[in-house]
Design goal:
It is built from 19 helices and 13 strands. It has 403 residues and is α/β, with parallel strands linked by helices. It has 3 domains: 216 residues, Rossmann fold (3-Layer(aba) Sandwich); 77 residues, Orthogonal Bundle (Tyrosyl-Transfer RNA Synthetase), CATH 1.10.240.10; 70 residues, RNA-binding S4 domain (Structural Genomics Hypothetical 15.5 Kd Protein In mrcA-pckA Intergenic Region, Chain A), CATH 3.10.290. The chain has a 6-stranded mixed sheet with strand order 1-6-5-2-3-4, sandwiched between helices. Strand 9 and strand 10 form a beta hairpin.
């Protein structure tokens, strides 16, 4: 496989959306310009059945390497997800079963295929880390842990905070960076790409590669998407855009973002050129309505993960429902089978709530309407009506309840 050493593409690769490079960006640039084909990876723990824009940012960086001819791996943390990454967590993560992990990961390749090429020339590889981690003996784990000190582990901010607040730090949480670090050894990689919140874990792999394989491992960290409060957009923190969101949902979530996030989103999640992004930033500073910039951003992102046609339809849907306060042209239908049901049951059956508790929360928040009337009592009965009734959740979700 021929490796491309285009200087302009490599410079963009090492700067756009990049937070840091270890040991240095200059050394990695020299390696890339040398024409050596690198083996690199990004690891994803399947802690939910969907991937999100944060994952996509890292996979998009892998795609840049793939387009230059390098070998890329998407690693599913099929073992590490059962332990739980303690990164940025002030409480211990819930441990998942293997069945839960595999169920969550079932569609990850399909979702990632929106970004990476898994077929044809220089196709991306899909790997699972239980293949080697599950086979390690206790002696192997002891040997692996001998490469680190307790003091090194306690340098992590979240452990220091927990210790100061007298919150528990479980021993298995120290094992997580060891396991992620060993992934690099098992796959014999040259480079790891990940969010900059994963720096500690990725550098653990750099240590193990140096000590166990006498090999340099590079680390490239990606800047995080954060909300207006500075919190990262993630499954645990909320505010995420899932890659399998419907076009209308994806569009609506972007339009609901804080205005301060427009420029970072353009930079980190799209292929717009730097000068175009600068022009958007200048236009907003000069008095342009941020809503117009968000409309462009939303249409761009939806087109990337669905299609240009889906993006235009999502824009039309948003304009009708939100701007003009109209109902969408097409409303999904749900048959009630001739029976009465509570509003809670209707929300769950329509897929607007994941559980009865979630449905009750939506009702308490005033987010539920039947035929434009706000419902405040979770025991409200919904009876079959000739012609159907319109069940609405929030501003964006509608379903017609048919008899």
């Amino acid at each position: 496989m021929n490796v491309i050493t285009d200087e302009q593409k490599i410079d963009r690769l090492l700067t756009r959306g990049v937070a840091a490079v270890y040991p240095t960006a200059e050394k990695l640039r020299e390696l890339l310009m040398s024409g050596k084909r690198l083996r690199l990876y990004n690891g994803i723990d399947p802690t939910a059945p969907f991937m999100h824009i944060g994952h996509a940012m890292q996979l998009r960086k892998l795609r840049e390497f793939q387009d230059l001819g390098h070998e890329v791996i998407m690693l599913i943390g099929s073992f590490t997800a059962m332990i739980g990454d303690p990164t940025d967590k002030l409480a211990t993560r819930k441990q998942l079963t293997k069945a839960e992990v595999l169920a969550n990961a079932a569609t990850y390749k399909k979702q990632a295929s929106k970004i990476l090429k898994f077929s044809g020339s220089n196709s991306a590889k899909l790997m699972f880390n239980d293949k080697w981690l599950a086979k390690m003996s206790f002696a192997d784990v002891v040997d692996l842990s001998s490469h680190f000190t307790v003091q090194q582990m306690m340098e992590r901010d979240m452990f220091q905070k927990r210790s100061a607040e007298q919150k528990p730090i479980y021993l298995h949480e120290f094992f997580y960076p060891l396991m992620q670090g060993y992934d690099s050894v098992a796959m014999d990689v040259d480079l790891e790409v990940g969010g900059n919140d994963q720096t500690f874990n990725m550098l653990a792999g750099r240590t193990l590669m140096r000590e166990m394989k006498q090999k340099e491992k590079y680390v490239l960290t990606i800047s995080l998407l954060t909300n207006s409060d500075g919190k990262k957009m993630s499954k645990s923190e909320g505010g995420i855009i899932a890659l399998n969101d419907a076009p209308e949902d994806m569009f609506g979530k972007i339009m609901a973002m804080d205005d301060s996030m427009i420029v970072p989103y353009f930079e980190l999640t799209t292929d717009l050129e730097d000068d175009e992004i600068t022009a958007v930033e200048s236009a907003i500073a000069g008095g342009m309505n941020p809503r117009d910039a968000k409309m462009r951003l939303a249409e761009t992102v939806v087109a990337m993960y669905h299609s240009a046609k889906a993006a235009k339809e999502a824009k039309k849907h948003f304009t009708q429902v939100f701007s003009n306060k109209e109902m969408p042209d097409v409303i999904p239908e749900l048959s009630m089978g001739g029976r009465n049901m509570t509003i809670v049951d209707a929300l769950v059956e329509a897929g607007f709530a994941s559980s009865n508790g979630d449905a009750k929360r939506l009702i308490q928040e005033g987010a539920v309407k039947i035929d434009a009337t706000v419902i405040s009592d979770p025991m409200t009965q919904v009876a079959p009506q000739v012609g159907g009734s319109i069940l609405q959740k929030g501003k964006r979700f509608f379903v017609k309840l048919l008899p």
